[in-house]
Amino acid sequence: MKTSTILFWAARIVAALLLLQTLFFKFTAAPESVEIFTKLGMEPWGRIGTGVMELIASILILVPFTVWLGALLAVGLMAGAVLSHLTVLGVEVQGDGGQLFAYAVIVLICGLFSFWQSRSQLPSFIKKFLPSFLQ
Predict the structure, then answer these.
(1) Of 10, 2, 134, 7, which is closest to residue 72 (Cα–Cα)?
(2) CA distance 57 to 135
(3) Considering the chain, what percentage of its residues have pLDDT values greater than 70?
(4) How far is CA 108 from the centre of its chain?
(5) Cα radius of gyration rounded to whole Å, the chain
(6) What pTM was computed for the model?
């Protein structure tokens, strides 16, 4: 198996696992998740909605035909998470040493790589709106 194929699968699996790992906390209303989304003014609808979108992204990024869509969704979600950490929450949340922030950055990077690797799968009606380097 080629190195690029291994890296592509590794990035997708890492992104999906990290997204799935946080769902328990979001869907069970763990105090940490409630506090985070309360600070963002999005509790409970933001917590639950984000969890649903992360679940969808984690499934889509693992399905070969929909990698690009799952990766794009993961990138959008994690861009929002990183921005929230940098502007409202802080890098460290409840003494976690920046672990949630690091997870968001890792998923963001894996999502960007996965999108780049799957860009040839983009439907033509979407490609025409993208710059040439993404086609």
Answers:
(1) 134
(2) 22
(3) 99
(4) 6
(5) 16
(6) 0.92
Per-residue pLDDT tens for 20-55? 999 999 999 999 999 999 999 999 999 999 999 999
Cα pseudo-dihedral 18, 21, 27, 30, rounded to 10: -110
Asked if residues 38 and 18 have their Cβ atoms less than 8 Å apart, the reply is no
First CA to last CA distance, the chain? 25
Say how far apart CA 94 and CA 98 lie, in whole Å.
9
What is the average pLDDT across 54-67?
97
Which residues touch 10 (CB under 8 Å, ≥6 apart)? none
CA distances to 25, 34, 45, 88, 106 from 41, in Å:
18, 10, 10, 10, 25
